[in-house]
Amino acid sequence: MNTITTKTRQLRRTAAIKRKGREVVAFMAAVGLVAYAAVVVKNLAAMAEVPEALSMVESDDSGFPGAETTIPAEPVQFAVDPLLASVDEEVLAPKPAETVVIEGEDPDAGLPEGAILDTSVRFFNGRAVKPGKTMWMVVTAYSPDERSCAGTADGITASNHHVLTNAHRLVAADTRVLPLGSMISIPGYDAGQIVPVLDRGGAIKGNRLDVLFPTHEQARKWGVKRLKVTVWEYADGQGKDNWRKIRDSKR
Q: pTM score, two decimals?
């Protein structure tokens, strides 16, 4: 009887110990779960305070979407250097470039005496010339061969200069309008350079000009044009040049 009682007590004591162990394990598990839940709640609260970055899709000028870019929710704040915090903003601001002007300085200093500063002035025949007037003219072309100068294709112009004078670049005009020796420039002829009037023609009357080309084919290609012609005059104050003394290539 006593043996049975003793065994019963031992079984009860073992069962009580096991029950206590299970209670301790359950308590520890509950404590761990509560701690984990607190950490999760804290992280969620921190994430809720920071707004998510916005994303947008850029598009080019054609309206088609381009690469996706991320725009920060708030601009990044940089710390201010305490050593510069007291510096005046005007000191840090960039200053515009200053133009240094030296009093009494002549912008034309260093130019040779008598230099021509007028950009409209050119040179012809070794002398300075300037625009005198402009005229609207009907401009045709001719060549020094028989097809243009039937019966007079000897290569000599009305001014007694050869057609090779000024390298085939000369003009026939009505000498009552533009006397022999006149200096003119014609758009599209000799790249607009100044050429002399050294010839006349039976069909060239009034406001008409005939520009010389080396070949008949070039003259026909020119055709008939109405152009504003510039008449030039000497700018050195020494009067007109003697066109009869202009040297040409026949001598």
A: 0.51
